[in-house]
């Protein structure tokens, strides 16, 4: 840890800076010294002396919350900070395993425990009489969060909405392994995403980093959009549909590309307007058939389509 001498308003500004870069500012004056802290640059003029202490992840006790779900009901998942896994669960129930945590300086285990107990709100509840369920992890302090495993009933057939936003701080991944017979899938995430999209007829996935997805079936009239801030790797099944792929969307310069891999071997045709823009038509698809879009928003992102 490096000792710093701070004056006035600079303390608040530097606290935000160190928090965003994985450190916590800690009082390390002589009466509050921390093991391992640097004792250089002693302050003799009444100013505050602090150390930049590396962050550790302190975990609380795992708990499970449940809510009843009715056929046709939606499930909305909101997690402001932490990993999200969506898997298959038990009939008629949405179950959530919650592992709370706090990122604090290495010496701050007691403070982390207090943050976990008092700064994190964990909600798993029936939203209304239609059987909708809301899963929400919210916080009043920026260093706390929860890694959650959401278990959907095998017969799930409602809308699935996932909103995961950690504001770029230890974002954690998003992994959707099960969607059942969802009527629609909407995903917004500030992390990389892995999505088993099944045969959902309406898909909208937008992730700030990589997107890996598998579409295992094509529903009548299906539409889908996969947007990646970096690379995307999307696998499609056999069937009649078309895919439009655009790398480096709205970018003045582009080092990304679109790779259609085995499309022609799978009986599809490829229309390449450029290395960064391609359309793949499978099963003799026309404009009236199911359609998908794969979009890369970064200037370096590569889009890979598999068939």
β content, as a range?
over 45%
* CA-based shape: flat
> Can you count the beta strands?
24
- Average pLDDT metric: 87
Describe this structure in words.
The structure is a single chain. By secondary structure, the chain is mainly β. It folds into 3 domains: 2-54, no CATH class; 60-191, no CATH class; 201-307, no CATH class. The protein is 7% helix and 48% strand. The protein contains 2 helices and 24 strands. It has helices at 10-20, 109-118; strands at 2-6, 23-27, 48-59, 63-68, 75-79, 84-88, 93-105, 120-126, 133-139, 144-152, 159-164, 174-176, 184-189, 193-198, 202-207, 211-215, 223-228, 232-235, 241-246, 258-259, 269-274, 277-282, 291-296, 303-306. Strands 1, 2, 3, 4, 6, 7, 10, 12, 14, 16, 18, 20 and 24 form a 13-stranded mixed beta sheet that branches. It has an 11-stranded mixed beta sheet with strand order 8-9-5-11-13-15-17-23-19-22-21. The radius of gyration is 24 Å and the shape is flat. The protein starts with a strand and ends with a strand.
Q: What's the short story on this structure?
A:
This protein has 307 residues and is mainly beta. 7% of the residues lie in helices and 48% in strands. The chain has 2 helices and 24 strands.
List keywords for this structure.
307 residues; mainly beta; 13-stranded mixed sheet; 7% helix; 48% strand
Give the secondary structure arrangement, pairings included.
Layout: E1 2-6, H1 10-20, E2 23-27, E3 48-59, E4 63-68, E5 75-79, E6 84-88, E7 93-105, H2 109-118, E8 120-126, E9 133-139, E10 144-152, E11 159-164, E12 174-176, E13 184-189, E14 193-198, E15 202-207, E16 211-215, E17 223-228, E18 232-235, E19 241-246, E20 258-259, E21 269-274, E22 277-282, E23 291-296, E24 303-306
Parallel strand pairs: 5-9, 5-11, 6-10, 6-12, 11-13, 12-14, 13-15, 14-16, 15-17, 16-18, 17-23, 18-24, 19-23, 20-24
Antiparallel strand pairs: 1-3, 2-3, 3-7, 4-7, 7-10, 8-9, 19-22, 21-22
């Amino acid at each position: 840890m490096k000792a710093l001498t701070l004056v006035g308003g600079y303390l608040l500004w530097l606290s935000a800076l160190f928090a965003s870069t994985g450190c916590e500012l800690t009082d390390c004056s002589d009466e509050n010294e921390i093991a391992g802290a640097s004792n250089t640059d002693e302050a003799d003029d009444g100013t505050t002396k602090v150390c930049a202490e590396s962050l550790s992840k302190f975990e609380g006790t795992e708990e499970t919350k449940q809510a009843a779900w009715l056929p046709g009901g939606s499930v909305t998942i909101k997690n402001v900070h932490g990993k999200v896994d969506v898997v298959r669960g038990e009939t008629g129930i949405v179950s959530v395993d919650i592992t709370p945590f706090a990122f604090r300086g290495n010496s701050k285990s007691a403070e982390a425990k207090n943050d976990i107990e008092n700064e994190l709100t964990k909600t798993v509840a029936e939203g209304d009489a239609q059987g909708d369920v809301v899963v929400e992890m919210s916080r009043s302090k920026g260093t706390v969060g929860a890694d959650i495993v959401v278990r959907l009933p095998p017969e799930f057939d409602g809308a699935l909405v996932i909103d995961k936003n950690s504001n770029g701080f230890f974002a954690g991944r998003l992994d959707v392994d099960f969607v059942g017979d969802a009527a629609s899938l909407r995903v917004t995430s500030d992390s990389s995403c892995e999505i088993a999209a099944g045969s959902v007829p309406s898909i909208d996935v937008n992730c700030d980093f990589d997107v890996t997805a598998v579409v295992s079936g094509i529903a009548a009239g299906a539409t889908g959009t996969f947007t990646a801030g970096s690379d995307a790797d999307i696998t499609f099944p056999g069937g009649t549909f078309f895919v439009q792929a655009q790398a480096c969307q709205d970018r003045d310069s582009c080092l990304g590309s679109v790779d259609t891999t085995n499309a022609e071997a799978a009986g599809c045709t490829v229309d390449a307007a450029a290395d960064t823009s391609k359309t793949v038509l499978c099963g003799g698809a026309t404009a009236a058939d199911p359609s998908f879009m794969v979009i890369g928003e970064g200037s370096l992102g590569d889009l890979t389509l598999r068939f």
